[in-house]
Amino acid sequence: MARSSSSRPVAAVQLLVAISALCAALSSATVTVNEPIANGLSWSFYDVSCPYVEDIVSWHVTEALRRDIGIAAGLIRIFFHDCFPQGCDASVLLSGPNSEQIEIPNRTLRPAALKLIDHIRAAVHAACGPTVSCADITTLATRDAVVASGGPLFDVPLGRRDGLAPASSDLVGTLPAPFFNVPKLIEAFKNRSLDKADLVALSGAHTVGRGHCASFSDRLPPNADDDTMDPAFRQKLAAKCASDPSGNVVSQVLDVRTPNAFDNKYYFDLIARQGLFKSDQGLINHPDTMRTAIRFALNQAAFFDQFTRSFVKMSQMDVLTGTAGEIRLNCSVRNTASVDISSSAQLDTAAGDDEGLAADA
């Protein structure tokens, strides 16, 4: 009897699982990044002023993830949504009427992850005084969330300072959306000096997190008009989302194989046509990104190596150093009242758990 087409992705994934397991067993999870760093940043920036900052951050992140593993994806998304628009300056943490958090892509930032960053800031400042920026704490917390979820251990350069104002609506609008095709993704990343390898590797952060039905409705009936999604998977998602007319209540894990582990199984999902977002699935179908995505599926060590390089690269985008910016005493509020930012403003958090790199439309 002829083999059904739906079984082919399963067989392909089973083969890749065996190969990937062998590659992972032969490799180390620790990655060393020897890349140039931005002026003002240093691998040992707090060795004198706050020598235990990394230990403090790591402890708090590990404890938070022990209680709620979903915070890992929340931190990754905050980091990306901070760095991509105007640089890694913790501007996305500012609350108030002009905050980035009221912009559509940021309305689903996870409140628990935002709260954790300022909780860590309080602990670090209690130990060392106001010497460590919210931007550096966000970077460290995100790195530690990757590690605590099973991802690679790597160093990040430090010395960032906090921005004095949120990014404009136009800049926030440059965040890549889950409905972007690959050419549009490549263009968006190129505009931020990130290349195709960075795109594929950073998209791999979708190995953790969740998305609401509204963020992948374009891949479900009656909108779907292609065969890029496994029919059985599409039917399952369509039935699940049918109970959620608003698209903002029901959620789905981004990685159907190991949703709470930072590993390379996200790329297996793409091979099996089980990527949730159009921006994800396109990576395995487009010739400009397909070979890299397949390589990461075959070799977790290769994914980890490129992810760390891309993470460190992104973490240095348009950073403020030296005397620029400030070190906030509260991550959600500027130290001075010269701008229209208020810590009393409340966020709309009704749908606050879409995670990963893609902005929810």
Please provide a written account of the structure.
- The chain is mostly helical.
- Strands 1-2 form a two-stranded antiparallel sheet.
- Helix 1 packs antiparallel against helix 10, helix 4 crosses helix 5 and helix 10 packs across helix 11.
- The longest helix is centred in the N-terminal third of the chain and has 19 residues.
- The radius of gyration is 20 Å and the shape is globular.
- The N and C termini lie far apart (44 Å).
- The N terminus is likely disordered.
List keywords for this structure.
single chain; 361 residues; mainly alpha; 13 helices; disordered N terminus
The helix count comes to: 13
Indicate the radius of gyration in whole angstroms: 20 Å
Give the low-pLDDT segments.
Answer: 1-13, 17-29, 338-353
Helix/strand order: HHHHHHHHEHEHHHH
The largest sheet has its strands arranged as 1-2
Helix content: 40-55%
The major pleated sheet works out as:
2 strands, antiparallel
Measure the end-to-end span. Answer: 44 Å
How many beta strands in the DSSP annotation?
2
